[in-house]
Write a structure and sequence with these properties.
The chain is mainly α. The protein has 3 helices and no strands.
Length: about 100
């Protein structure tokens, strides 16, 4: 296995795990109707995180597929993965 392929596999697995966990957290909050007012302020940030990490998962999975199969579009997929990584870092990097 090439080093970039291994790195993309790790990145894809991490992004999919994050996205899955966030989606399941959102679904869980939907079933907690007695605490709806408690979770209401967290719904919008949670849905933003779901969107970011779902797109990040899709981009990194596309990169991994393109790299494994050596497709000509893999460089665009690499760029999409780097862009989504940058978006995730920009959104969640702690500010002062």
């Amino acid at each position: 296995m090439r080093p970039l392929t291994a790195l993309l596999a790790i990145l894809t697995g991490s992004a999919v795990a994050l996205a899955s966990g966030l989606i399941l957290t959102w679904i869980t909050t939907l079933f907690l109707t007695q605490n709806e007012s408690r979770f209401a302020p967290e719904q919008i940030p949670l849905l933003k995180a779901v969107a970011v990490f779902t797109l990040f998962s899709a981009a990194s999975a596309g990169s991994l597929l393109g790299d494994v199969k050596r497709r000509p579009w893999r460089f665009q997929a690499y760029a999409a993965t780097v862009a989504m990584f940058a978006v995730a870092v920009w959104m969640y990097w702690p500010s002062k």
